Amino acid sequence: MSSLFSAVEPYAVLRVACGAFLIPHIWGKLQFPPPLVVFFEQAGLRPARAFMILASIIEAIAAAALILNLFTPIAALLAAIMLVIATICLYRVRGFLWIWNSGGFEFPLFWTIVSLVVARIYWI
């Protein structure tokens, strides 16, 4: 799986998508929208802005590594860890709310599973 992206290599599509989907989350955190700052505080991540910056840095490293196919299994595990933390935070703040459209943890849990699958595929 040496190429960056190839329709012949479906695992590469999954890997690149897994990394690329982190980019809007990184950007969103760096805008420091007041509701997100409050969410981080409610989840117990204080100081919220510092944790938002830390999360953005970790996500940026994971995204770049996944997209560029560098240290892929480690990057995918890093993404999975971040997503597990996000899932736990969502649960802590909103309780058991499944549907993502309503603020639930369906999407980050799915994304965690995908990240773990990518880690397993590339762990050779």
What does this entry look like structurally?
With 124 residues, this protein is mainly alpha-helical. It has one domain. It contains six helices and no strands. Helix 1 (10-20) packs antiparallel against helix 4 (48-68), helix 2 packs antiparallel against helix 4 (48-68) and helix 4 (48-68) packs antiparallel against helix 5. The termini are close together.
How is this fold's topology laid out?
Blueprint: H1 10-20, H2 23-30, H3 34-42, H4 48-68, H5 72-94, H6 106-122
Helix pairs in contact: 1-4, 1-6, 2-4, 3-4, 4-5, 5-6
Number of strand elements:
0
Number of domains: 1
Q: Please identify the structural class as seen in this structure.
A: mainly alpha
Which strand-content bin applies to the residues?
under 5%
Radius of gyration: 15 Å
What is the averaged pLDDT score? 91
Helix segment tally: 6
How do the SSEs run, as a string of H and E? Answer: HHHHHH
What is the terminal separation in angstroms? 11 Å
Q: What characteristic shape results from the CA principal axes?
A: globular
Percent helix among the residues? over 70%
Q: Please mark out the parts with pLDDT under 50 across 5 or more consecutive residues, or reply none.
A: none
Largest sheet: none
What brief labels describe this structure?
single chain; 124 residues; mainly alpha; 6 helices
Write a brief caption for the model.
With 124 residues, the chain is mainly alpha-helical.
